[in-house]
Amino acid sequence: MPFSRRTSTASAAFAFLLGACGEGDPVMLEAVAASCSGGPAQHLDRLPSGAMVLNAYFLQEEATRDARRGAAESPVLEEVLAKASALGVRALRTNGHNDALSKVGDTAIQVAPLEYDEVALVGLDWVLSRARFHGVRLVLTLGNYWDAYGGARQYVEWAGLPRPVEGDARFFTDPVVVAHFKAHVARLLNRVNTVDGIRYGDHPAVLAWELLNEPRGRGLDKEGARLRAWIDDVAREVKKHAPGHLVGTGEEGFEPSPDGYDPGFWSRSGSPVLRTPGASFTRNTASPYIDFASVHFYPESWGLGGVDTAEAGARWIREHAAIARNLGKPLFVGELGLRNEGTFDVSQRRALYRGWLECMRKEGVGAGALWMFSNDARPEAWDDYTFYYRDGTQPGDPVNRYADLVMEAAAAERPGAAVSTGR
Length: 423
Prior knowledge:
The two termini are 26 Å apart. The model is unreliable at 1-21, 266-270 and 416-423 (pLDDT under 50). The protein contains 13 helices and twelve strands. By secondary structure, the protein is α/β, with parallel strands linked by helices. Helix 1 packs antiparallel against helix 2 (26-33), helix 2 runs parallel beside helix 12 and helix 11 runs parallel beside helix 12 (346-363). It has helices spanning 4-21, 26-33, 59-68, 75-86, 118-134, 151-158, 170-173, 175-189, 225-241, 279-285, 308-326, 346-363, 403-411; strands spanning 51-55, 91-95, 110-112, 115-116, 137-141, 206-210, 246-248, 265-266, 273-274, 293-297, 331-336, 367-370. It is globular and about 55 Å long.
């Protein structure tokens, strides 16, 4: 795959701009973050290339709490959907799962193996029906690799297996666990929405189902064959019950390292270096049951900081987009996040985001989603990456951080011929 020329060109541009503008200069950061060579437009379903998506994982919880207290609607759900629509956002990525035992009686959907809290499901019904009303589609995760909202560990615990851990590899290999997860997927997709009478697997508000939030191959074979086998098995089940919807893996785009862990960066000399995507990411995306490539990007969480971050993000987008194009599938950058109190100040973060969004546009990426969009009442401390579109403000008001960048990117969505999404 022709990565070398693009990388060397970008590196030369980086060196020139670094000398011209100085380290950390927002103009330099934006230019380097946007250093992409371009590619044909790709599409997720009927969305325009470069469609803007936002992460708002909490919608089912907010709707459920309002349903449980007998409210006629969920104010937070309405606020987030209305504001997303006003910004030109095409879809929201949000939880379609909630298996946390700590939330039983509150917002948990699955409270025991294949036993469900109807009120929590009504909350999800509201999310789908109201998204359709507001003209915003949904990317829904079917589970989580991490412990939040139950995660892989909860399924392993339910199976009675000893010493479950976060991201337990047995989630992907134990026959009882896999059968349970597939049965849950079938139950969920065959639910008929109590608000609009539409089966989840046919619901027009759904853009895509992601098999898991951030599945990793830790504890599995380093070649990735077992994870790919699980992807084929579960994605086939999703397609069986939701044949008109897109399916993605929900992965971050990592390659397995020699110890079986999947960091985004590794080091030979003490400084972080971005690992080039290759066989494992390609193998997963090539599944005949997967319609689009999935990546996330959190440079600070992965050990990268400083001015190299701009080029690292551009390279992450370029190289994953190239693999997706070679497979005839669009790329979805499902999470993209810089900490509000991290390495960069707000002017630098804005420059990096604007540059990476431009990079996505140039590369013809199907869609990109910043992490994470919040309702006004959600505290800043709730999440390290929050941004807003606060009542009574314009998108460019500094209190919103990035709302204007989202609107700009939405206005710049690319026309062009569609790349196959498996539909």
